[in-house]
Amino acid sequence: xxxIQFNNIYKGFSGEYVLKNISFSIDEKDKIGLIxxxxxxxxxxxxxxxxxxxxxxxxxxVYGTITKKGNINIGYLSQNxxxxxxxxxxxxxxSVYSDVLEDHKKxxxxxxxLAEELDKFDEIMEELSILTVRYEKEEGYSLEYKxxxxxxxxxxxxxxxxxxxxxxxxxxxxxxxxxKILLREPELLILDEPTNHLDINAIEWLEEFLKTYNxxxxxxxxxxxxLNNVVKTVYEIERKSINFYKGNFDDYxxxxxxxxxxxxxxxxxxxxxxxxxxxxxxRYRAGIKSKQARGRESLxxxxxxxxxxxxxxxxxxxxxxxxxASTDKVLKIKRLTKSFEGKKIxxxxxxxxxxxxxxxxxxxxxxxxxxLLKIINDLETYDSGTxxxxxxxxxxxxxxxxxxxxxxxxILEEILDSFPLSEEDARRMAGGFLFGEDEVDKKxxxxxxxxxxxxxxxxxxxxxxxLLILDEPTNHLDIxxREVLEESLEDYxxxxxxxxxxxxxLxxIVNKIYHITEDGAYLxxxxxxxxxxxxxxxxxxxxxxxxxxxxxxxxxRINSLVKQxxxxxEEIEKLxxxxxxxxxxxxxxxxxxxVGLLMExxxxxxxxxxxxxxxxxxxxxxxxxxxxLGN
Length: 631
Description:
This protein has 19 helices and 18 strands.
């Protein structure tokens, strides 16, 4: 069944169409990846789906139609999120269930009224019965359990549960907003760059969530690895139109190549036909065959001509060069430790960087990866340990917050402040980074994240470094810009240190990975896939090479946990049955107008629910430990 249907939709701004003749449908359980260049119209399309933008008429003044399923529930995670900053993290996510929580308050009030308003007993009991059934149906007694599952998946430590939302970082707020959207489980889920502020573990958790999501979603993302793992159809907005490709991102790449090959042949054949007609018209315009020439000219004018299927995407002109070679030893970090306000971020970090290394730093959010980069660049102090720098070292640092840019400058002013260029050459350089003549006078403070990233990359090229340090360089870049960045780094002959959660990028660029933890850094040689396989092999090797006693201990622990799990399941089942019996007694007491017994039974029911919740949490912990031991 179609949730949303677009038929012949046009949308224009300032007299020019940005979307033309758009037709598509979104059905139940569709898993759609929406891609296209920045500015292609993805956000505009989403706003029309949400009803925040109206569509326009076509060239003949005819309006298309947008139809939606009645009362459709759409959840949208945008780049800008609306949160109550006075709430704690836990309560803000729990607020998704405000209606259910309100029902719980009403149930408590009605239970108290039963003892005080005996003359309205039947009326109160009827209302209480309706509310209780609804509360049970909405699984009201497991709300806190669901919230904790989401917070755990999004890598929120328990110490942040009671943190005020207003005191969180931008990335943490983004995760709170994502958690709220996921808990709502809307019929249509729209996620705009959801991986931007997630670490790799949280991204992988979100992947699993979306794989099992039994409703429809649209994923706007430039993360190719993520798209590959979760979508089943790719919608691409290109040249004001929308094209559809079945499968994931890899399937899209193959299908588009085939489409372009066939479309190009048709286009070239038509161009050849047009050229012959034009030649005929020109040759016989005046003479014995002028009538036929005019006829062909009229026919040519009426022809609906094919567009050239090859879109020449404007790409940034990015090239990193090293002006000189460094010594073989670039960096030696020994037993490095860092704390903030008495809380340990990391300790005992040992990292060796040699000439030509292309190192990826990964680890959960909050473990200090960006802090480490700032320490290397002498922008942050450390508590203990040592850092030895090699000789002939020229360092350039890409900060994901773009602190190296003066936001009060215009684009042109920033270039002129950074490079010894004439204004004409500065404008030419800006054009190479996709800033047109009418854009160079824009204030940097008004630019998007992607535009600021382009300026930062422009400035990185200036000093021709032999050590390039990049903190989340693919954030805010579209797929085409990511490909340009990858190509430029592949050709770069210096040394790289990169913090990134973009697995496709890591797979393309790095040859070593350091997994940063609170207690140290662990080295894996190879790209991201090698890291994953190495990690898996090490876990298997650990099990295989353990001595007999260790294996026996491991096996005994697994057996013990399995027994605990079985016992918990039995206890939960028993409690559920007891609760059902209490609910039946509650109904009987209600019919007898026995207020005292009703109050007593309600208290017992609440106690059973609390016990069930506690056992479910224990069950989850044991299940998690079993998975770890199984691996």
